[in-house]
Structure formats: C-alpha cells, structure tokens
Amino acid sequence: MLKFPDNFIFGVSTSAYQIEGDNKNSDWWLFEEKGKLPYKSGKATDHWNRYQEDIELLAELKVDMYRFSIEWSRVYPSKDYVNYEALSRYREIVDLLRDHGIEPMITLHHFTNPIWFHELGGWEKRENVDYFIQYVETIANEFPDVKYWLVFNEPIVYMLESYIEGHWPPMKKNLFLAEQVAANMAYAYAKAYEILHDLGKVSIAKNMIYFEPYSDKDKDIEACRKAEQMFNWSFIDGILTGRLKVIRKEYDVPKSELDFIGLNYYTGMKVKYTLNPLRLHLDVEPIKTEKCTLMGYCIYPRGLYEVLKKTWNKYGKEIIITENGVAVEDDEDRILSIVRHLQYTHKALTEGISVNGYFYWSILDNFEWDRGYDKRFGLVEVDYTTFKRKPRKSFYVYKEIIKNKAIPDDLLEKYGENIS
Ligand code: BGC
Q1: E strands present in 142-213
Q2: How do residues 111-120 score in pLDDT, each as one tens digit?
Q3: What is the pLDDT of residue 277?
Q4: Beta partners for residue 264, in sequence order
Q5: How far is CA 303 from the centre of its chain?
Q6: CA dist 211 to 142, 269, 307, 318, Å?
Q7: Element (H, E) at 389
Q8: What is the rounded distance in angstroms from the CA atom of residue 230 to the CA atom of residue 246?
Q9: Given this model, what pLDDT does residue 280 score?
Q10: Which residue of the set 71, 154, 228, 368 is catalytic?
Q11: 204 alpha carbon to ligand 1 midpoint, in Å?
C-alpha cells in the first residue's frame, strides 16, 4: 500500500456561493436575476441551513481539514454594515468543525463580490481594495484562532472569466481592465497578508494546468511556455517579486509572501500557436485520455505530478493541493481519479517534493457557476428537490484512504495506474 506521512492533510473543499444558497447580496445573484447568466443558484445545496448535517458528514469522513469560503456579501450586505448574525453562523461552523477535530481553512474570496462593491467598480478600481481589507480585518478579528487562510481563489481564472471571456460577472471583455483587476488583487493580497500572517499560514488557491506543446515546432513550444507563464506563474511571481505581468502590461505591486502554495489541479491542455491576436496567439485543447469529464476536459493525473514538480522546482515552497476533483456520470471514475491523483502525489512526495495535503473538490454536489447543477463533483449526492444528502461509494473509499493515511493495495489494484 502507498503510505502517506502521518502529518499529511486529507481534506475536502467547498465555496460559499456554490453551496449555501440565497446569497442575494452577491453580484452573481444580481446577474442571475437580470437573466444574464444561464443558471440560477437559488437555494444551492441549502448548506446555510443544513451546515450541521454537512459537518456530520465531514466528521464521518474524518477529514483533517475542511476548506470553505466566507461570503463577503453576507458579512457586508451593504458597505458600512456588518451582519453579525452571519458572522456568528460562520463562527459556529468553525467551532463545530473543531469539536470534531477538523481544522478549518478559510478562503476569503471565491469569485463572488457584494453587489455594492460591484456597483462601485469592483476590482477595477484600486481605491476599492480598502473595502476588501476592511472585510479581511473584520474576519481576522472574528477568527484569530484560524491557522490556514486563502485570500483569493484562482485570481487568474476570475480575471479570465470575468474580464476576458466575459462569462462571469461583471461580464466584460476588456484586456486593459483585466490586467488592472489582477494588479489590484495582487495589491489586496499583500495588504491581507500583513493582517492574516499574524494568525497563521497565508496563501492563495492557484489553479494550475499542466500545459504541453501541441507539436515540437518552435512556435508551439513558445506558445506553451507563454501560456504556462501567464496562467500558472504570473500571479505568484507578481506576489513574490513585486512586479506583476500577466499578459502585456507590467505593474508594480507590493512585494509579499506565500506561506505555502495552494494548488488547484484539474487537467492538462495542449497549446498551439495561432495567428489570432484576439486569442493572444494561443489555442488550447484538452489532453485527451480514456476518461473525460462532464466539464469537457479529461482526467490526467500525471499532469498533477508534473505541475507539483515544476512548482516545487520554481519556488521551493510547501504545496497543499487545495482542490482536485471530477464531475462524472459514473462514480467509479471519481474513485479512479482520486486514487490516481493520490498515486502521483505520493510519487512527488517520494521524490522530495514538499506536498503536504490533498483536498478533494467537493464534499457535496453543488452549483457549478455558469454550468449549473448537472456537473456533479460530490462525494455526496445532493437531491435538489428534497436536499437530501446521499454519500456515494467514493465517499467511503476516500474515508478508507483517510483512515489508513494510505491507498490500500486492493484499491491500487482495481483503480490505480501503472506508473513509473
Ligand atoms: C473552482 C471551483 C469549481 C471547480 C470545478 C475550481 O476551479 O475553484 O469553484 O467549482 O473548479 O470546476
């Protein structure tokens, strides 16, 4: 069996907007109501009311840590008003987790913003960062006992979806604003770090894709390098060096630190050079494997090992896999995915890469942004009419792995990959 170190963290992740329901003060809600988004989040999984039941599930799974986000728009429904009732619910969640021996990891921003913040120009304006910092201070005061913090979930994905592709609020397509937004988020990160670092370890959850050139032509190799720099490294480089360049423009941002690297990994892509400047001369397509997911990408566990290695070689910092998961029809494929990604995590460990945790996305089926409710990532199935939770086989398999801090031989035999 493949044994993990005793202090290896097994966890699961969620985000507030995707599970809580009725986040009516959020910019996503506003855009849903205006009919600009294809799906409505509505009650989501109704976690806001069913948190106790969901924490029972986490306790049964016996995760070491649970990553969740606080919905800024719940805590600050308007600019100058703190909703202490909402804060005390989050407090209760943290306390209940601790009662079960589960450590919380808190994300402060997972794609959504309060409506008032959006109306003030959101992340486009440097002066608005002060509002975010005020929120960070409020949360830090309320949770001085929390040891793991993620200031942003996937800032580059936010920038791309919200300001380049225009699929997510505020649904703009503007390269200039996109870069401004990334710079303001890097600036906010540095300020938040100063506040949170006194409490514990601080980082971001950075989505990393394994990129591979489409061919051995120089242009494809160069396009691949560019995609990797832009998507995987630019934001981290910006935080660590004080110079942020995502696409074109270079910004001065306050130099800061990451106490570990939160790494979200889902898949691999091939990169091809294209003449189209609107696509930044880059064409990407999924690396095809025998198992593809409902999200349109394929399960490529080796890519996780490759990005762990590259991230470690580049930064030499502790890494925690803050998300990895699949939306699949057949739960057997979810088990296969978990086992194989963990096999490659283990391989990285044996090669001296400091990867200290793995969080499955997600404990529950949930609201998958502009892709709605049929993209089911959960270890636990949610019935969206009754809100009944039903653990899948993968829940029990992951539980077994967590209990042993190892992948047992029978699982390796049935689901594992022959890796060298
Ligand atoms: C995001 C999650 C999302 C997941 C699956 C991640 O990039 O952080 O919010 O649900 O991907 O698509």
Answers
A1: 148-153, 201-213
A2: 999 999 999 9
A3: 87
A4: 207, 323
A5: 17
A6: 40, 5, 9, 22
A7: strand 389-391
A8: 5
A9: 87
A10: 154
A11: 14
DSSP string over 69-116: E--HHHH-SBTTB--HHHHHHHHHHHHHHHHTT-EEEEEEESS--BHH
- Mark the ranges of the chain whose per-residue pLDDT is less than 50: none
* pLDDT computed for residue 263 by the predictor: 99
Rg of the chain over Cα atoms, rounded to whole angstroms, equals: 20
Rounded distance between C-alpha atoms, residue 307 and residue 348, angstroms: 10
Domain spans in the chain, listed from the N-terminal domain onward: 2-415
Residue 153 in contact with ligand 1 by CB distance below 6 A: yes
Q: Which residues contact 158 (CB under 8 A, 6 or more apart)?
A: 111, 152, 168, 181, 185
Angstrom distance (rounded) from CA 83 to CA 65: 26
Query: For position 198, what pLDDT does the model report?
Result: 96
Cβ of 365 below 6 Å from ligand 1? no
pLDDT tens-digit series, residues 278-335: 888 999 999 999 999 999 999 999 999 999 999 999 999 999 999 999 999 999 999 9
Protein residue whose Cα sits closest to atom 9 of ligand 1: 15
* 323 Cβ closer than 6 Å to some ligand 1 atom: yes
Q: Is the CB of 265 under 6 A from ligand 1?
A: no
**2-415 is a CATH 3.30.70.420 domain:** no
Structure confidence by residue, pLDDT tens digits, 223-275: 999 999 999 999 999 999 999 999 999 999 999 999 999 999 999 999 999 99
- Ligand 1 centroid–CA 367 distance in Å is 10
368 lines ligand 1 (CB under 6 A): yes
Is 154 a known active-site residue? yes
Residue 357 and residue 65 in contact, taking contact as beta carbons nearer than 8 Å: yes
